[in-house]
Amino acid sequence: MLTCGIVSAATKLLSGWWAARRAGVNPRGSLRAGAALVARGEFSIVIAGLGVNAGLEPQWGPLAAAYVLFLAVVGPVLARTIEPLYAAFPGRKV
Predict the structure, then answer these.
(1) 35 and 19 in contact (C-beta within 8 Å)?
(2) Number of Cβ atoms within 10 Å of the Cβ of 90
(3) Domain with 49 in it
(4) Which 3-state string (H, E, C) describes 36-86?
(5) I need a labelling partner for 18 at 20 to 30 A (CA). Which of 27, 32, 54, 65 fits?
(6) Per-residue pLDDT for 18 more than 90?
(7) Residue 93 falls within a domain, yes or no?
(8) Which residues are CB-contacts of 27 (< 8 A; sequence separation ≥ 6)?
(9) Over 90: is that where the pLDDT of 55 sits?
(10) Of 16 and 44, which is predicted with more confidence?
């Protein structure tokens, strides 16, 4: 579950960054946009609930809840720390 959460958070961060860069947003704002996407995982609970109610995979419910809880904790922390992390690289200003 942890690996899935890390990969998901990284891909959300990158896709948000990429989309914002394509829209002409500066690098700092692009990272902020990507970080804002990390906490979004409610759709996973909906899909897991449909699967559990259909009797397909009863273990999906707890797995989806753990996944969303992980991202709900990591997302705001990442959103708070992304700009200081960006500024830590040489030549970058916040």
Answers:
(1) no
(2) 4
(3) 2-88
(4) HHHCCCHHHHHHHHHHHHCCCCCCHHHHHHHHHHHHHHHHHHHHHHHHHHH
(5) 65
(6) yes
(7) no
(8) 21, 86
(9) no
(10) 16
pTM (two decimals): 0.69
- 44 in a structural domain: yes
Contacts of 39 (CB under 8 A, 6+ apart): 71, 72, 74, 75, 76, 79
Percent of the chain with pLDDT over 90: 12
What are φ and ψ of residue 23, in 5° steps? -85, 0
Q: Which tokens in the block code for residue 24?
A: 């002409």
Q: Report the share of the chain in percent with pLDDT over 70.
A: 87
> Is 19 inside a domain boundary?
yes
Q: What is the pLDDT of residue 24?
A: 95
Q: Answer whether 71's CB lies under 8 Å from 38's CB.
A: yes
8 Å CB contact between 34 and 85: no
Q: Name the DSSP letter for residue 85.
A: H
- Chain position carrying tokens 């449909």: 50
